[in-house]
Amino acid sequence: MKKWHVILASLASLALVGTLAGCGNSKASSSKSNSTYKYGSITIPAKNGTICGAPNYIAYEKGFFKKNGLKAKLVAKPTDISDLEAGFASGKYDALNGDFQYLPAIQNGAQIQAAGGIHQGCISVLVPKNSKIKSVKDLKGKTIATPGQGSTAQYVASIALQHAGINPQTGVTWKTYDYDLLTKAAEKGQVDAIGTVDPYAYQAEKQDGFRVIVNNNNSSNSQKMADMGMKKSGSCCYLYLSNKLTKDNKSKANAIVKSYAEAAQWINKHPQQTAKILLNKKYVAKTKFVNEQNVTNLIKQYHFGLKKASGKADVTYYAKQLKQAGFLKKDTNVKKLVEQAYYTGK
User: Fold this and answer.
1) Has the keyword Zinc-finger been applied to this entry (predicted)?
2) pLDDT for 127-148, tens place per residue?
3) Which pLDDT tens digit goes with each residue over 266-289?
């Protein structure tokens, strides 16, 4: 019996040592995890199938978030801007790759700030190949379809309209169609022109023969495009951060900015590898047209790179344009709005 008591006691001791060792490993693992992710977790509403959302995916896939102490989670991006606003207000979301369509939302209380321009234009206004419309001036009295009221496509078209002397509120009729139905609506004669984002705009032009009337990517610094309101080398899309971070946790906010800056720089240097990642990881749905070559071409056109100072100047420009077009309040103080809407990192 004594022999069995000794054996059982020995086993119990080994079990205890193993348990303590396991606890120690658990603490060590937890400590290592905390060390790896210095700034904790962030949630980004990123997944919506667009190519211009590449910085979200590359920052995640190439480890830039992790490198800068952030444990990132990419989730589906709500189509309704009010759902995005609610997500940021509640602390559910931390960052967003979006465009200047959020300026009216910020004026109305959305809890986000832009932190830098992240790439140039991805939006076009197009007409079917046999259309008699040759210029923006020809759009007077016509019907334009976009993916939604208050969408950036509508804003880009409106800026061009007002530069052509057409009131965007009364001089045209606006209709809304889903992205994949816009070209069909124009081809059937239900609308005269469409405003949409890539890859839909690129496909309409290259595959369906649509003609581009306006493109908001003025990376060539064309005066003709500038005369239509398309700012020279102007940023179309921006990095947005939650006010909860920019006001209360600047270190974490700056870590996010750094991650996106590094991702955008990587994209600009590796457009083809970026295209492969977007398609192979199914962030962008692959089709016969939306293939590696075409996605690479688009990425090259966007000139990715986080621009802080010039990004603020671009936001100021578009705020003035949106005020003139009637999408911001008539008494908007643009300077004050931009100070509210832009995070400088200080």
Assistant:
1) no
2) 999 999 999 999 999 999 999 8
3) 999 999 999 999 999 999 989 899
